[in-house]
Amino acid sequence: MNDEVDHSRRRLLTAATVGTGVVGVAFAAVPFLASWNPSARAKALGAPVQVDASKLEAGQMLKVVWRGQPVFVVRRTKSIVEHLGDHDAMLADPSSDDSLQPDYIKGAARARNPEYWVGLAVCTHLGCSPLGAFDPNQAYQLAGTDLGQNWPGGFYCPCHGSKYDMSGRVFKSMPAPKNLTVPPYAFDGDAIILIGVDDAPKKA
């Protein structure tokens, strides 16, 4: 009887020791395996997209896809850039204090290079894609809406009528609550834009 109890106790202790060792190995492996995975920031940013904006003429725009979202790349005319600050009183957030953009994006231009504007083509109201209406003081009729004689040029959302200027800044009293989002991006040369990174890779 005593032998049977001793054998049972040995089996129980052996199983407990082995089980503890397996659990210990598993916990030790988690940090090691996790180190193989991309960082949360890398996952969030996704793969960068390269855009050759040198092919754009002044006043033209192209749309690319980054992380499944459409992105505007606009080459602004010198006249537009010079007058970006003229209509700040008409805007809900002219300084972009309450908008999503990298820390290095500042001022009325909201761009690393004032000639080119990069922003998500997603209205901050309900996610529709705005239309470009770049020429100022033109009688635009977009989706049955007249943008008015004082239109400085910018974007118009056909879904619910939100208006943005050429820096993606929303006008006052619009359904959209914020300016268009500026994603992280960098220049690799004069007009090669890398959307999805904060700095261009260093060349050897």
State the total count of DSSP E strands.
Answer: 11
Largest sheet, spatial ordering of strands? 1-11-10
Shape: globular
What is the straight-line distance between the termini?
78 Å
CATH-defined fold name of the largest domain: Rieske Iron-sulfur Protein
- What does the radius of gyration come to? 27 Å
Level-2 CATH architecture of the largest domain: 3-layer Sandwich
Q: In percent, how much strand structure appears in the residues?
A: 15-25%
CATH superfamily of the largest domain, by name, is Rieske [2Fe-2S] iron-sulphur domain
Oligomer state of the chains in this structure: single chain
Keywords:
3-stranded antiparallel beta sheet; 204 residues; Rieske Iron-sulfur Protein; 22% helix; alpha+beta; 2 domains
Can you describe this structure in just a few lines?
With about 200 residues, the protein is of the alpha+beta class.
